[in-house]
Amino acid sequence: MPDRARLTFALTLHDAIAPDRTRNACWSPHSVAGALALTARAARGGTRAELTRLLGDVDAVGVEVDGAEFAVANTLWAADGLPLEEDFLAELADRPGAAVRPAPFRDDPEGARKLINADVAETTRQLIPELLAAGSITDDTVATLVNALYLKCAWTAEFPEHDTADRPFRGAGEVPTMRRTERVRHAHRAGWQAVCLPAHGGVEAVVLLPDDELGGTEGVPEVLDALDWRRVELYLPRLRIGMNASLAEALRRVGVRTLFTPGADLTGLSPDPRLYVDDVVHEAVLRVDEQGFEGAAATAVTMRMVSFTPEDEPALVVRVDRPYLLLVRHAATGAVFFLAQVVEP
User: Fold this and answer.
1) In a domain, 340, yes or no
2) What percentage of the chain reaches a pLDDT higher than 70?
3) pTM of the full predicted structure?
4) What is the span of the domain harbouring residue 244?
5) Facing residues of 319 across strands?
6) Secondary element (H or E) of residue 18
7) Average of per-residue pLDDT values in the chain
8) Is residue 145 located within the same domain as residue 223?
9) What are the tens digits of pLDDT across the range 216-271?
10) What is the CATH number of the domain that holds 177?
11) The domain that contains 124 carries what CATH number?
12) Helix, strand, or coil here: 70?
């Protein structure tokens, strides 16, 4: 049974990240949770409490994805001379793709930025070539925690390419839309239709189509709990979507505030009490076509110092022809790899 805590985290933060339902958005709850979970291990006192309240029981250590291309990296980039706590390094070592690497933040901040970006680009198969923009790393940056992931899955049953055609999508005119008919898990409840599309590696994509306008995420857990098998004729747009954004303001909205102030306590990472988080930068890219889907994401937590400068069954027709949500998750654990808000496919 998928972990409800992972879904709760994803939906809670999505409402803060993408409050404007008239714009596209795409992010990776799995990557953000991985970076924030490590940050929580580095935090103490009230700083840690705010993070753990948001994360709940989400276990960001990792999930097994066999039969698909899947890569994860968890890297701590640290300035020379920054003392690091052994307990935190041991905690980091338990994460998939763990590494601790030096970065010349003080002497060559631009060089440090390029090092981090090149490492992220390698993990994400070049889908995210520049996570950190020019100027985001300065000479008073002392550490950056980075989680990066890449996922490429084929559908267990492909969409026939000859059935793809331009079809109407509310607010976006005609868009290339795929079509296939098969028995899949489906539910219609609490103002949503959900269609679950299985892929290799134990991964599934869940289309969440609202009955009316795309609004909040209330009712999503209920419709996911009601999924059951039936024959569905699904019309689904091809998708290419991406987003690069600071998550600091969204995190403040959901109660993570002390982390971004001089009052932050990150002494679990370093005994130096002056450390605080300057920003949480996130980028995600997701592509969906007839063969399957490919996605990449990366999250960087940058830190500074306060004073350091049945075949005959009638098919139910589901036309995804208006703004919707797309959730890509690990079927067994509920780990949410990607959550996309699609207004213009």
Assistant:
1) no
2) 97
3) 0.92
4) 4-153+240-305
5) 235
6) none
7) 93
8) no
9) 999 999 999 999 999 999 999 999 999 999 999 999 999 999 999 999 999 999 99
10) 2.30.39.10
11) 3.30.497.10
12) strand
pLDDT digits (tens, 9 = 90+) for 26-54: 999 999 999 999 999 999 999 999 999 99
Element (H, E) at 313: none
Q: What is the 3-state secondary structure (H, E, C) of 185-232?
A: EEEEECCEEEEEEEEHHHEEEEEEEECCCCCCCCCHHHHHHCCEEEEE
Dump pLDDT digits (tens) for 92-120: 998 999 999 999 999 999 999 999 999 99
Q: What is the length of the chain?
A: 345
End-to-end CA distance of the chain: 31
Q: Please indicate, yes or no, if residue 341 is contained in any of the structural domains.
A: no
Hey, what are 123's tokens?
């993990």
Does residue 301 fall inside a structural domain?
A: yes
Write out the DSSP string of 242-307: EEEEE-HHHHHHTT--GGGSTT---TTT-S-TTEEEEEEEEEEEEEE-SSEEEEEEEEEEEEEESS
Same domain for 123 and 88: yes
Return d(Cα 41, Cα 30) in angstroms, integer. 17
**Quick check: helix, strand or coil at residue 141?**
strand
Cβ 327 vs Cβ 190: under 8 Å = no
The answer to whether position 56 is within a domain reads yes
| 71 CB neighbour count, 10 Å cutoff | 17
